[in-house]
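quick one if you have a minute, typing this from the bus. theres a chain ive been looking at and ive put its sequence and its fold in token form underneath. please have a look and point out which stretches look like helix strand or loop to you. anything you notice is useful, everything is just below.

***
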Amino acid sequence: MAGASLVILSCGFLGLILANIYQTRPVQLKSLISGLKLLETEIVYASTPLPQALGKVGGRLEGAVKLLFLQTATLLREEPGLPAAEAWEEGLKKLKEQSALHMQDLEILKTLGQGLGVSSREDQVKNLELAREHLKQQLALAEEAAQRQGKMWRTLGFLLGITLVLLMY
């Protein structure tokens, strides 16, 4: 009985871990949308230089998303001649390693980074708004997938455990 319980709980726990992965992406997308809004505020209203603006935004965010902003800010401060697009690209690499974001999400951010720091304030605001809109679309898809896939993996984990126990006995 103890072995059967252990198998069921182990498989159930694995299902819960997989369901949690699907729950992480929408949280990170919301954080990114919030971070881009904060960056827009820093650029437009506070007229903060880009390295300081990115650092402030990174300081306000949590989780893997803050790595993008903090890494980019650090690179821009340490290497003054480095284009913002290259620093942003390095931040994206760090984010990709630590986050549950999909390639579509990262492509949106990569496109945003190409115009970061090289265009006028108005153009940067338009780019930030466009990126936020695209991320909101990805967020809607991610929430739907999290609800559907998360429920499936939670149930499937325990059912797999029960099936394994029945097959063993």
